Protein 1
Amino acid sequence: MSQYPRTLQEFEERFRTEEACAAYLTSLRWPEGFRCRRCDHGQAWNAAGGRLICRRCRAPVRVTAGTIFQDSHMPLRTWFRAIWWVTNQKTGMNALGLQRALGLGSYETAWACLHKLRRAMVRPGRERLSGRVEVDEIIVGGVEPGGGRRHLGSNKALVGVAAEARGRGMGRIRLRRIPDATAETLERFVAERVEPGSLIVTDGLWSYSGLVDRGYRHQARVVSGSGRTATSLLPRVHRVAALLKRWLLGVHQGGVARRHLDAYLDEFTFRFNRRTSRYRGKLFFRLLEQAAQIGPAPYRSLVIRPRRRA
């Protein structure tokens, strides 16, 4: 049997029951076989309520314990359907769309579900970018009077962008909200996301001048006096910036609060880095696989209670 369903029909047939969902999640949590966390025994009985009972010490283990599904009131079948819908929509969906698609009782439930899944979109221990990498900062948010390019008001946020060059095309990307454009902040942004020894291509901002001391090769492309535009000098980061802003406006109608922005950047990165995947079912498998590795995310930890937007 394939690791993942390839069509909606396969999905519905494979996950018809709560037991089937629990068995699939068990295989993702313990790909090499069950191990009891108390006595390290390798055999267990299946019990009601999605539990496993160790054959040696009789310790009960919930399949959902230690995952984003822990303590959730939603059945695993509903969670699986949510993941299928999220990964099979090419541009994703907002909370209101998910609420309607799954018939959830409240907007808050759909909102929390999506934010938990966005946490799972960051793979633990993921590799840093390498090779030739373009880096820049962009402003995301509404238009406000006053200030210059890096002036931040209550509706704006500064986002660091790093994009790998793959020939004339683009490889993986990394995005993160940053507090400012100082040398300390930007050097830390690069160090956490790009392998040392890589060639970092930036604009002429002085804040990047210390990258060589951190073990990187650095090429600064100054717009002033070059006769070229910033878009032509750093085409990849500007393409990512345009796509990100279009996505935030089109899918989420620009209704993303600055305090939640990092979660949406994680989702955009997850989708962009898997844009060439032939099967949407594989994205379902990857997201569910990562959801089984991410710790619980209680509603109160997801941030302030969201307000429904008109």
Protein 2
Amino acid sequence: MRRPRTDLTILATRDPLDNTLYNQGYHYVIWDIPPATLGIPAAMSSGFEPSEIPGAKQWAPFNDYGFMGPCPNMPPTDGVEPPPLNNDTYSFTVYAMPLATLPIPAIAADGPSFPRVMDDYLKDTALAAAEYRGTSDAQASSIEGVFPPTAVNPCPSEGEHPEGCLSSE
């Protein structure tokens, strides 16, 4: 089972040929979830390999690779009136996969982001899929982690490993 999260509002308003902007619509992916896993904890830990789901791997550009809930609006800046609230629609898709462990694709510099490449792979390989959509106008009180994101991509299953890539321990 695999689950990516995409921001459909961003994808509908960005040029798919502009990787810098279009990649922003792909927020999170978790994969290699064992078939017996029936749910994902609401407060699952961050990190590339979450301890709550043995064998699973997750990736997001924020929150130490962990899931960060839907929140389309940045926090207000001191002394500056916040802009009108965005109302974004999100997609959470679960895929049934023919493999228990997925190969990790190589990511090209300045190309599609890791969650975007994984989402394409999942769509092309899945035996079945189910999607849930929800809308949020939440505004963050603060942003955790590094901004802009500086997350490192996972090491690809084949070929050379870029220096400093994430590998399974």
